[in-house]
Every structure is written in C-alpha cells, then in structure tokens.
Design a protein that fits this description.
Residues 6-63 form the HTH lysR-type domain. The chain is an alpha/beta fold. It has 3 domains: 3-87, Arc Repressor Mutant, subunit A (Orthogonal Bundle); 98-165 and 272-298, D-Maltodextrin-Binding Protein, domain 2, CATH 3.40.190.10; 171-269, 3-Layer(aba) Sandwich (D-Maltodextrin-Binding Protein, domain 2), CATH 3.40.190.10. It has helices at residues 9-20, 23-30, 34-48, 64-87, 105-122, 138-144, 180-184, 188-193, 208-215, 229-238, 247-257, 285-298; strands spanning 53-56, 59-62, 98-103, 127-132, 149-152, 161-169, 171-175, 195-199, 221-226, 242-246, 260-263, 271-278. It has a 5-stranded mixed beta sheet. Strand 3 (98-103), helix 5 (105-122) and strand 4 form a beta-alpha-beta unit. The longest helix is centred in the N-terminal third of the chain and has 24 residues, at 64-87. It is elongated and about 75 Å long.
Length: 299
C-alpha cells in the first residue's frame, strides 16, 4: 500500500479511540462529531482489514492488530509533531498545545500547584495533564508521546532516554505531636521498636527505607501498607504509627495534618528526583521549555 492512499488524519483518530476507549470520548477529544469519528473508524477498518476495536460493555477494546499498531502510530505522530514544531516557532504565551507529565501522586502535591501557577502566568492557553507513573512502561510511553516527560527516582533506562537530576532529597520521619519520640528524640532503637506505615503504590516489595535498613542487616515493624499518602498521613495523625517520607513532601504536607517532622535516625543513600524524556525531543522547543520550567522550579 502506497502512503499516498492514506489520510494521515485517520491515524489521529485511531490514537484517540485507543486512548479514550470509545467513539464519543474520542470525538470530544478531537472536537469532531460522533458520525465523523465513526466514519473514520470505518475507513481504518477497511485500510487494515481488521475490526481494530470491538465493543466490550461501554468500552471499545483494541484487537490484537490494533495493539500491534499503536506503538508505530504514536511514534509516527510524535515525529510529525516534532517536525511541525520546528517549522512553527513555539511561543508559550500563545500556544494551545497540551503536555502530559508522569509522576507519583505524592510528588504531584508539591510539583503540580507550582507548575500550574507558572503556566497560568507565562502560558495561559497551554494545557497540562499529570498522570500516574507506569514504571514498567515508562520508556514506551516517552517514546510514543503518551508522556512528554516523567519525574521519578533514578531508574535503569536505555540509551534512547535522557535524564537529569532535578533535586536531592532525604528521608525524614513523621509522627503526631504527642508521640513520645517527639519529646524524647528518635533513636534507631526507638525507630525499630515503633509500628510503621509503608507507603507504596506497588502491591508488594520493599520501599526505599526498607532497602536501606536491609543493607544494615535490620528491619522495622510494618503494621500497615498503604498506597495513598493522605490516608497514611491521617493514620499517623490518629495513631502512634510512624511514616517515613521524603523531606520535600513531608515539609509540604506535615502542617496540613498537624504532624511533626523528625530526622531519620540512620544514614541512607541520596533520595534524588530525576526528570526523564525521550532523546527524540531533545531539541523540540516546547518540550525543552517544559523541562526548563520543571528544572528551575524544583531545584
């Protein structure tokens, strides 16, 4: 099949249906009518000789053929967007493009309000979406443009992914004001004797502080594993459990829950945050502008 037979706008529709899981939401996203999107899907089905999406309840689920195509489609659309960005000078003050940033929900608390405030002043028509980080698919989502950038701890990545340290952090301990460790001081012995909340979005596995303790040949007493930071902070406020957290988050959140911040009673390796992006957008003006905003904001 020759490319001159293909309407490239069909690929945009394909990506939207795949992302939104339905014709109605895809039409809303693309500012098209539902019949127009349905017609485009019909043309796509003829083009690829495959249903591509099949209804499952209220969702349109991709077929194996669609799943095999989505990576190539998104990379192609990303490359075309970069080409047009190079042609048209990026002006944050007037641009209406959207950015998607992957980060943990806890980091969102400290980063997103400041970033949104900056964008409201310098780039009032830009759109910003913060989404939960899917670590196993981080590289694929950066490569295909699902994410423009991501913020996370240091991770092994391929040579296609660029990264830069944004901030150095350290771990601290949160406790309610009347906990005895607040008045007496928190020793390592106290830390190991107390009940702890382990904050993690994963279903199992050690947290950063537990890995550090295991290197010392010791372990703490975990009474509760929790995936939501605000739930964990409420529990610390209402019980004598302790929560170990990065200091940048702890200083931001502790006053809201009436908690005290205590030094961690053992040394750990640095707990740094890194900004990740795909090297194919190294020189993309809009992506570079976004990276500069994040870097200057959380250094």
């Amino acid at each position: 099949m020759h490319i001159n037979r293909v309407d490239l706008n069909l690929l945009v529709v394909f990506d939207a249906i795949y992302s939104e899981g339905g014709i109605t939401r895809a039409a809303d996203k693309l500012h098209l009518t539902q019949p127009a999107v349905s017609h485009a899907l019909g043309r796509l089905r003829d083009l690829f000789d495959d249903p591509l999406f099949e209804r499952d309840g209220r969702l349109m689920m991709p077929t194996p053929k669609a799943r095999s195509l989505i990576g190539t489609v998104r990379r192609s659309l990303r490359d075309l967007q970069i080409m047009f960005n190079d042609i048209e000078r990026f002006d944050p003050a007037t641009s209406e493009r959207g950015f998607t940033v992957g980060m943990r929900d806890l980091l969102e608390v400290s980063v997103l309000p400041v970033l949104a405030q900056r964008m409201a002043k310098a780039a009032p028509t830009l759109k910003l979406a913060s989404v939960r980080l899917d670590r196993p698919n981080l590289e694929a989502e950066l490569a295909t443009g699902v994410l423009d950038v991501a913020i996370d701890v240091l991770r092994p990545v391929s040579d296609d992914i660029a990264y830069q340290r944004t901030a150095q952090d350290r771990m601290v301990v949160l406790a309610r004001p009347h906990h005895r460790v607040v008045s007496q001081g928190l020793t390592l012995e106290d830390y190991l004797e107390q009940d702890h909340i382990q904050l993690s979005s994963r279903r199992s596995g050690q947290s950063f502080e537990d890995l550090e303790l295991s290197r010392l040949g010791i372990q703490r007493r975990i009474r509760l594993r929790c995936q939501n930071a605000f739930a964990a902070l409420r529990i610390v406020n209402e019980t004598d459990t302790l929560l170990t957290l990065a200091e940048s988050y702890a200083r931001e959140l502790a006053p809201q829950f009436g908690l005290k911040v205590l030094p961690l009673p053992f040394k750990t390796t640095p707990f740094d945050a890194y900004l990740y992006w795909h090297k194919n957008v190294d020189n993309d003006p809009s992506n570079r502008w976004l990276r500069e905003q994040i870097q200057s904001m959380i250094r």
